[in-house]
Fold Protein GrpE.
Amino acid sequence: MQENKQPSEIQGELPEPSEGESVPPQPANEQANADMDTMPRLEETLRQAELKAAEHHDAWLRARAETENVRRRAQEDIAKASKFAAEKFAGGMLPVKDSLEAALASEKQTLESLREGVELTLKQLNAAFQNAGLAEEDPAGQKFDPNKHQAISAIEAEGEPNTVLSVLQKGYLLHGRVIRPAMVMVSKAKGT
């Protein structure tokens, strides 16, 4: 008869092999040691993964801050550019203003000296316009272009219709963009 043993007493005992049966050795201590060795390796791997994650998070935060700084600087540059866009042109206009004031300040002027002064002032103005990228549009004799010209009237004339006959007011382009269209009179075919 077998004795009834308590579960705590059974735990440490191994069943005896019957005759002719071989029992593989149970590495109880080896398994425990392997578990002990695996745990520190897992903890170390976890710690390294957490450090990597912290590094990546820090790098992401820095990149985000840098992106925000670049965006903020770009907005400031755009604001400054629009605020001071006319600075170069204004600098070119100051000599023109000085010349006009000097002409008005002089009391003893002849018509000839006044004309010379106005011509020199006009040259200064044209140079300021050219430096700023502002060009005249004087289309006399050219084909009418509704993108650059504004027709005031059409007159029957010989030659090809829609040709600019006369320019009432010059137009101006800023870097190729129409600032003011030229006001023109164009030709039309006779009898229309």
Notes: The chain has a mean pLDDT of 84. The longest strand covers residues 149-156.
